[in-house]
Design goal:
Blueprint lengths: L3 H28 L23 E8 L2 H9 L9 E6 L14 H7 L5 E4 L7 E2 L14 E5 L6 E2 L12 E3 L6 E2 L12 E2 L7 E2 L12 E4 L5 E2 L12 E4 L5 E2 L9 H6 L6 E4 L8 E2 L2
Parallel strand pairs: 1-2, 2-3, 3-5, 4-6, 5-7, 6-8, 7-9, 8-10, 10-12, 11-13, 12-14
Antiparallel strand pairs: 13-15, 15-16
Helix pairs in contact: 2-3
Length: about 280
């Protein structure tokens, strides 16, 4: 007969394995797709130059992606604190980040040069990707982005794996934040979801591990599965309206879905302790 200590050890091992499997399953829906050859200096395609996101370097304006790439190719490597500010005024982003001649490809090719991207003068209507690639997928030296008010949809994998992306300005014209749109943007600390958004799709902000708070406007009626899963520092969520289609599948860490859908839940602000799984409605 096995000793009590051996039995305890075996049970503990099984529990740990089960927990790991459960976590892995939760992320599985978000991990598929994405161009996998990252390259670069830090394992994800970016040069770890330190410093903070934001402009401190040169500002240049372009009306052609080719002109922008030629200029960026000629610039030296920089840091996040001295990110180049590029104002790009175009009607087409040129395809996915793995597509030669695209805006995203110019950034991926120059992944040791940090860039703050201002697209506010562009006339694009959507930033669309697919399970395998997005317009700025794996642009790991992108520190911030301003999206033009002509855009109505931020699509599948649009900014997936932009690990240096710290802030994003989404205009009120956007109605949908697509699947994996900002997943694994591990440096993202600030994002404002505008009142025009009605749908936040599956895994939209999955593994945004620097995000600490988020406000869901009253216009949002759908939050997909794993939309905010593995956002380990997210400790404050404000719901400004009812969510009629709110997935219960790993949408947030802990019991937030259960608390929100309970009779005493609904509209309000919910908080939790860092590392905790229990959410409390505070207002």
């Amino acid at each position: 007969m096995k000793s009590p200590l051996k039995v305890f050890a075996a049970l503990r091992s099984r529990a740990i394995i089960a927990l790991i499997a459960a976590i892995g399953f939760s992320f599985a829906a978000c991990r598929g797709g994405g161009y996998s050859v990252y390259g670069g200096y830090n394992g994800y395609g970016g040069y770890d130059g330190g410093g903070d996101g934001g402009g401190g370097g040169i500002t240049e304006t372009f009306t052609s992606i080719d002109e922008m790439k030629t200029w960026l190719d000629a610039q030296p490597a920089n840091t996040k604190a001295t990110a180049y500010t590029i104002i790009l005024n175009v009607s087409d982003l040129g395809g996915y980040s793995i597509t030669a001649g695209s805006a995203g490809n110019a950034l991926r090719y120059n992944n040791n040069k940090y860039v703050s991207f201002d697209l506010s003068g562009s006339t694009i209507t959507s930033i669309e990707g697919n399970p395998n690639a997005g317009p700025f997928d794996n642009c790991t030296s992108l520190t911030s982005v301003t999206i033009p008010d002509s855009v109505t949809s931020i699509g599948y994998g649009a900014f997936r794996n932009c690990t240096s992306l710290k802030s994003v300005i989404i205009p009120s014209s956007v109605t949908e934040i697509g699947q994996n749109a900002f997943s694994r943007c591990t440096g993202l600390t600030s994002v404002t979801i505008p009142s025009g958004v009605t749908s936040i799709k599956d895994c939209a902000f999955e593994s945004c591990t620097s995000l600490t708070s988020i406000t869901i406007p009253s216009s949002v009626t759908e939050i997909g599965q794993n939309a905010f899963s593995n956002c380990t520092r997210l400790t404050s969520v404000t719901f400004q309206g009812p969510i009629t289609d709110f997935s219960s599948s790993g949408t947030f860490l802990g019991d937030l879905h259960a608390k929100f859908t309970a009779e005493t839940g609904g509209i309000g602000t919910y908080t939790r302790l860092t590392g905790g799984s229990t959410w409390t409605k505070v207002s």
